[in-house]
Write a structure and sequence with these properties.
Length: 451
């Protein structure tokens, strides 16, 4: 065998021997520096999938959070506990509440000097301690997580329960929060570090082997759309669009606004795992009931009330993680907040429609976007000129007025609005007043005798 052949064989042998070792040194790093919620869970889940795809040996989470929703923290905890690779959490300042639960699920914890870890009691949106059933659930999670990684379960429970007695670390009756030096002495963390480079050195990780998870534009858009304020505006678009579509015959733009708002509202929540199929189905059922109430069922009754309730619940439930109406898995107070957002948007949309509805419909800019049927004079349509002459004249409803529709007077069709709220096809009416483009009518039976 020639020297060249031996060199080639040696090269390929070295390559295939060292390749698995090189791959095994890959570290995939993801940052969690906001409230623990659907965005955090989606980010970690996506990052872990990419780490597996590149066959990384270590999954590193840089954490700096004051907490968040327990259910999403539990999902991240489970991902770390069941990971196929080594897991490291780097506490870059704070790991409170839900952050403490995530930290305990890692194989190794490194902590910045001056950082803190603990204070994991379950609280509501106002920071008030929740009832015992929530604390008991959290204690169990903390204890089980610590035991799974060989850490002191009593210390983990003391993060949640002030009654746990650990004289060396905290006074009785106070929640446990550990500094970096205290956590190191208690065996909770592996080491104190000055910065991420110090962590790499102590964990024997080369910076060149670290792959940083990048947040995509789609992820940023999803995060923006599920912001409660943005969700409120989208609900406003949904309700307003539905209202104008039902109230204005021939309109198309309002339907587009409602559909687009609904898509932007539900799609990111569905991607985040918040909105489920049954919640979207409730919303759709509510819209269908409202349509039936307006176009099929006379008056306003059970279908209309149920439609409003279904629409409200479909929107509110989609914003909160739940197990088919079991909301105990979500952060306390979120369900009430979601209902407040939806109800507030509904009320605000009603106010806007009452104040500006007619002006919007009559504006030239809006009419450009309206899809209206062509109204030809040869089939009975006429302009609004001299409609004042029609006051107190009798006519007949040629379409259902809910409240707007068409009436016929002396063989001519006119746009009309029912002051009675609902007038069925074929009912006799009389004109009470005329404003702008419409005649305002009532049932003939309500006409004053002296007219």
């Amino acid at each position: 065998m020639s020297k060249f052949t031996k060199s080639v064989l040696a090269f390929f042998l070295s390559f295939f021997v060292l390749l698995p070792f090189a791959i095994a040194q890959r570290v995939y790093k993801v940052d969690l520096k906001d409230e623990i919620g659907p965005n955090a869970w989606r980010t970690v889940n996506k990052a872990y999938s990419e780490a597996k795809m590149i066959q990384a040996s270590t999954f590193l989470v840089e954490l700096n959070t004051f907490g968040g929703a327990v259910n999403f923290a539990d999902s991240i905890r489970s991902k770390l506990l069941n990971a196929d690779m080594k897991t490291i959490v780097y506490i870059n300042n704070n790991a409170a509440s839900a952050g403490a639960l995530i930290s305990l699920a890692a194989d190794d914890i490194y902590m910045n000097k001056g950082g803190s870890l603990g204070a994991a009691s379950v609280v509501n949106q106002e920071g008030e301690i929740m009832p015992e059933k929530y604390q008991s659930y959290m204690r169990g999670l903390m204890r089980a997580t610590a035991e799974a990684k060989g850490r002191d379960a009593k210390i983990a429970e003391a993060f949640v329960d002030p009654e746990i007695s650990i004289p060396a670390l905290k006074p009785d009756g106070k929640l446990l929060t550990l500094t970096s030096s205290e956590a190191l002495k208690a065996g909770v963390i592996k080491a104190e570090v000055k910065n991420i480079e110090d962590l790499y050195q102590q964990a024997e990780i080369k910076s060149a082997d670290v792959i940083q998870h990048q947040i995509s534009i789609v992820d940023k858009i999803v995060a923006f759309l599920i912001n409660p304020m943005v969700s409120g505006f989208l609900v406003l678009g949904i309700i307003g669009g539905i209202y104008f579509e039902l109230q204005t015959p021939g309109i198309g733009f309002a339907l587009v606004v409602a559909l687009l708002s609904a898509a932007l509202f539900f799609a990111p929540l569905y991607l985040q795992g918040l909105a489920d199929n049954w919640e979207i189905a409730i919303f759709v059922a509510g819209v269908v009931l409202l349509v039936l109430e307006v176009f099929v069922i006379p008056g306003f009754g059970i279908a209309g009330v149920l439609g409003i309730i279904f629409v409200l619940c479909g929107l509110a439930f989609s914003m909160v993680d739940n197990d088919f109406l079991n909301f105990s898995v979500s952060k306390p107070g979120l369900l009430i907040n979601s209902f407040l957002i939806v109800i507030g948007a509904m009320l605000f949309s009603v106010v806007l429609m009452v104040l500006f509805g007619k002006n919007i419909l009559r504006s030239s800019a809006f009419r450009v976007l309206v899809l209206e049927d062509e109204q030809k004079s040869e089939i009975g349509y006429t302009s609004s000129q001299r409609k004042s002459d029609l006051i107190y004249k009798d006519g007949i409803a040629r379409t259902v007025l809910r409240p707007s529709g068409k009436i016929e007077i002396d063989g001519v069709w006119y746009d009309a609005v029912a002051l009675d709220g609902f007038i069925d096809v074929g009912e006799k009416v009389y004109v009470e007043k005329h404003e702008n483009y419409n005649l305002f009518v009532r049932k003939l039976s309500a006409k004053p005798m002296d007219t």
